[in-house]
Amino acid sequence: MCGIVGYIGxxxxxxxxxxxxxxxxxxxGYDSAGIAIVxxxxxxxxxxxxxxxxxxxxxxxxxxxxxxxxxHTRWATHGEPNRANAHPHFDCAQRxxxxxxxxxxxxxxxxxxxxxxxxxxxxxxxxxxxxxxxEKYYTGHDLEVAVRRALERVEGTYGIIVxxxxxxxxxVAARNGSPIVMGIGEEEYIIASDVAAILKHTRQxxxxxxxxxIVATPDHFTSMTIENExxxxxxxxxxxxxxxxxxxxxxxxxxxxIFEQPETIKNAMRGRLIPATGDVRLGGLDMNExxxxxxxxxxxxxxxxxxxxxxxxxxxxxxxxxxxxxxEYASEFRYRNPIIEDGTxxxxxxxxxxxVDTLAALREAEKRGARCLGICNxxxxxxxRESHAGVYIHAGPEIGVAxxxxxxxxxxxxxxxxxxxxxxxxxxxxEGQKIIQALxxxxxxxxxxxxxxxxxxxxxxxYYHHNNFLYLGRGANYPVALEGALKxxxxxxxxxxxxxxxxxxxxxxxxxxxxxxxxxxCPRDNAYQKIVGNICEVKxxxxxxxxxxxxxxxxxxxxxxxxxxxxxTLDFLYPILAVIPLQLLAYDIAVLRGCNVDQPRxxxxxxxxx
Length: 610
Ligand code: G6P
Hints:
Blueprint: E1 3-9, H1 14-25, E2 32-39, E3 42-49, H2 52-59, E4 68-74, E5 89-90, E6 96-104, H3 107-116, H4 127-137, H5 143-152, E7 156-164, E8 171-176, E9 181-185, E10 188-192, E11 204-207, E12 212-217, E13 220-225, E14 236-237, H6 253-259, H7 261-269, E15 273-274, E16 279-280, H8 289-293, E17 297-302, H9 304-321, E18 325-329, H10 330-333, E19 344-350, H11 356-367, E20 371-376, H12 382-386, E21 389-392, H13 405-425, H14 429-451, H15 453-463, E22 468-473, H16 477-492, E23 495-500, E24 517-521, H17 528-540, E25 544-549, H18 554-559, E26 562-565, H19 574-592
Parallel strand pairs: 17-18, 17-19, 19-20, 20-21, 22-23, 22-24, 24-25, 25-26
Antiparallel strand pairs: 1-4, 1-10, 2-3, 2-4, 5-6, 6-7, 7-8, 8-12, 9-10, 9-11, 11-14, 12-13, 15-16
6-O-phosphono-alpha-D-glucopyranose is lined by residues 303-306, 350-352, 355, 358, 401-403, 603, 605-607.
């Protein structure tokens, strides 16, 4: 969502460090940006609608040196993305500058009472209310006290960083519902919403919990609850490095991340497979055999691509472990009256570990007594920390807004989970060994598919001017169809629908004519013969057929206009392979249409608002 970064240190290069940090946060939100530095007892600031390059333009010739400052990249929630609504926001006296990620829910009430006290507002944002509220309580030399008093009156979510022109040796941050991490450098501290802004300077970090604050000076920090009780934090070491968040020679982060998948899939399995016995060890689950056997029902919750991974997980776990699985959108789950019985285990699937709906659903499930586990990528993220235990997918930083490598790592971990439960219930050691062998082959098979990128690009060249696409699959490949369609929508702004192939005749078939490209995911699995029938139905109506299948599937080759081959694997592992060409197809179409692949309009990498 919004990216926030604050700096305090003994040097004079706050502006430079903040702008660089902002660049690394831009993927989170990018409709406006701003910066404020304290210099000579006053605030020097600039903000603008648009991307960080626009802010850089505006700052040309402006001296942004200083030893304390804050910067923000926004994804609008209240008020359109313009200069006035961009952060930082200020009090009336322009002494206090504040940046915020989250939503102040009671801002209208607060704003009214502050206006009645003659506070003058210049933006339509919820955030500005907080700047004025702090001003109300500020005496000029106790910023943390004023922040605390203001936060006591606030309802909603926030990750905030506040500075004051009259206390240039202080930076205050607080968190409730939106991530705050602080990097501890040599005589400097960097506070941000994401470690990406910190990594260049230090790997030593602490994560704030909800209702906690931090007060940093150039050489010291203290942390406490909003109620002013002292808290101590373990310093943790981040194991991602800077190179992992650079583009590595690719034109876009998304392409880099697609091409990383042979490695990231391996990472998701590393140290977890026991080929000799056909077992899987997922220590992160923190459950013994007896507890695992006692699991009667599994709920998978997530949003967007993570929800699609859950749908595939449902096929995998039910098929291999015979445990009933339900998959729910986190946003729906949290507002229902969900039934959690004894023996129900909930897995929250989230790349970022910060998606607010998934987090709220997890909390709801915890409240109702379920054992809650996370399947997250970002180590130390809120979901990872708040769940009872969990399994990291170890995909490394995913910067492209459209999720790719996290998806294949999520389904790889779900396959491992199916095997963990399956081996306790229905799968023999020899079947386990067979599955592990197949899993071990997946990474090379993905590399093979990636070698066919040129062919996929040539298909994209034929179809990028079409306005509608249909994606069809059966069984575990139906969610792959959903994911393929989502990728195209997200980054090309084209209408695309994913459907179970057999359902096509109950509606979407009406759309088919010579202008409708239909992507079939049809490897030779147990649904293959059936889906060939569906391909014939499209062919009969002159639809254009792009088929993803295995070598030697002659019926498909004869029917399809274009064929993309994927190697053979076990039926339940096909989704990992089949989604790769769909990611590339979406990527190529978006590039051909001139779209901003890594930062698609209106979307955010991590959605920390409802
Ligand atoms: C946003 C992103 C998607 C992602 C979804 C869930 O919509 O743009 O790519 O799948 O959030 O995010 P999570 O971090 O919880 O997996």
